[in-house]
Amino acid sequence: MSALAALAAAAVIVPVLWAFGERLLRTFAVEPQGLAERFGLGLAVGYAVCIVSVFGLAVLRWASFSPVLVLLAAFAAVGFPVLRGLPAELRDLAKSIPGRLRGGLPLLVSLFALSALVYSLAPPTGFDATVLHFVSAKRMAGLRGLPLDDPAPWFHRSGGLTFVHLLGFVLQGEILAKLLNFAAFGAALAVVAAASSRLAPGSATWAAALFATCPFVVGFWGYEWLESGVLLFASSSAFSLARVLTGGPSGWLAAALAFSGFAAGIKTSAFASLAAGAAALLLGLVRPRPRPWSAIGWGSLAGALGFFLWPAWNRFSVQHALPFHPVASLPPSGSSPVPETLPSALLAALDALGQILTVSRYWNDAAGPLLVVGLAGVVLLRLRSPEGFLAVLAVGAVVLHLAVLAAVGRPYLSASNTSHGRYLAPTLLGFGLPVAAAFARAVQAGPPWLRSGYLAAFLLLAAPLLVLKAGKAAVAAPVVLGLESRDRYLAKKIEVYEACRMANGLPGEVRVFYLGSRPYYLDRPWNSVEELPAGAARSVSELVPWLDRLRITHVLVEPYGSADPASLSPREFDLHPRFHEIGSWRYRNHLRVRLLEFLPNRP
Amino acid sequence: MNAPTAPGLSPRETWLGSAPRGVLAAFAAFAAVYIAVFSALFARRIGEYFGEIAGAFEFARPWLERLSR
Questions:
Q1: Taking a C-beta distance cutoff of 8 angstroms, is the pair A165, A133 a contact?
Q2: Of B9, B27, B53, the CB nearest to A472
Q3: Which of A218, A262, A324, A573 lies in the 20 to 30 Å Cα band around A212?
Q4: Burial of A104 per CB tally in 10 Å (0-12, 13-18, 19+)
Q5: C-alpha B65, offset from chain centre
């Protein structure tokens, strides 16, 4: 039922944001052509404005149903001229779908998209989403806005798309937020296909196919990560740059600058997206007179707004502007040594480069081999062209990312950090996919042995990924269709879910100390170990005074992922007289999730 | 002189078709080695993940066993 309601809500909200964004683009003399361009760029602008305006409502603590609905109505009023024509256009599109699906590649893309849609309609289970991203949005929805004094560092890691998620949470709930994330991927696909088509006419299908079969896209499309937003804004900035390079009006220059700022503003690790902004600035400054100062000014202003919005809020609320937050700027696991000297940092950067070019700890952090092969082909064979410029931009973003880390962010280069692929993939895909797809199209004109080899490599990757994506959709389908209960599905997917459910059902005043990593499904008030000063709870006896001070009634112990759990052994809790176990559930590796009652101190 | 145009492609897209064969061969060799290395590493990772996916279908095991009898 909630899946149906969310689908209906998304079917209204996404076109409204698209129409509003397209109208805004046209106001600034930026004219997208064709449905793919209009949808992708329109939604990108719609999401950018949504981020700023919902953030504004959240600051005022007005992020509740009625004000957000009024905001959406205002967007609909502005976008009405575009909105009015959409039903007829979409009807024509629907009529042409059978013809469009005749080829193998469009069918393949549709199967990937359908699998992702099914997964989008299931309750959130993404690890980071239930640790950080959706936890932030859920907490803000509960408070109707931004907390002024939230001491949890994870809350301050990322902004940007979180406010689009917040809009979904406020208007319907978590499934709508997931669908808005799904639409961000869809819009990115449209932008990549349109950009590739501009670079090499007829390459849109290849672009869509390469997009849908990138391990990163397969892994994250349908989930709740923020990378979808980085990908959307990064690809939009690359598209805008391509329009500048092919003689488009100066409005595209402003768009490239603005999109670049919004991409980098989503999370600290996306700063490489600023490379497109720097390239746009350079292109604007080397243009023959009269220089487009107005476009440079407006674009820089909008880009700065997207980039500085969240750090500025952090500076105001907790006196730390990301990326300089003392805890949040460190990688999740800081246990391995940090490279101290420049040579060791460069060696570590090479290791990170290896992760980006191949696969890291997780298969879904890979950008994909055809992207790298396409970029290499363009650099080797067609450097002095718009494709060549974008290929150099994609490679330059990787170099910039690693150089900045080697110079000022060495903790990120510690051997335990296996997330480099994930940090860079959205930027690399956004800048590089149109180039790789244009290259794929050109391969069709090459010798038959090259064409056959490329197609074989594509299928080698696409086949297992499609089986995997369809498998994930099959796991989620029963809960989406109402054949499996939400509780049963979540208990199967999230080890800590049953403990959260029990805590949610406890009678009376309950405040939980959450010693773990995935608190999304915990609906009672809670505090986490991250909120304590570093090293404040090295043993259970040291933890007890903090629990008294926070008025904790229960402790939920998840044996993985919290900031300082290693020293707090389960046995210590058993031996301490103030803890009484009321529930225990199986966890991986023979460990157990435990819910403990924290008994009052009796003299 | 313009490179010959493949059916359905504009002359602009034939730049790869007209590239020197030596350069193309070198590029193809790089691409083949790279894709082979990537595929080997990727297969190991994705293999682990397929195991997890199979685990999610455990609920169907009794039904499958009954069916196979």
A1: yes
A2: B53
A3: A262
A4: exposed
A5: 35
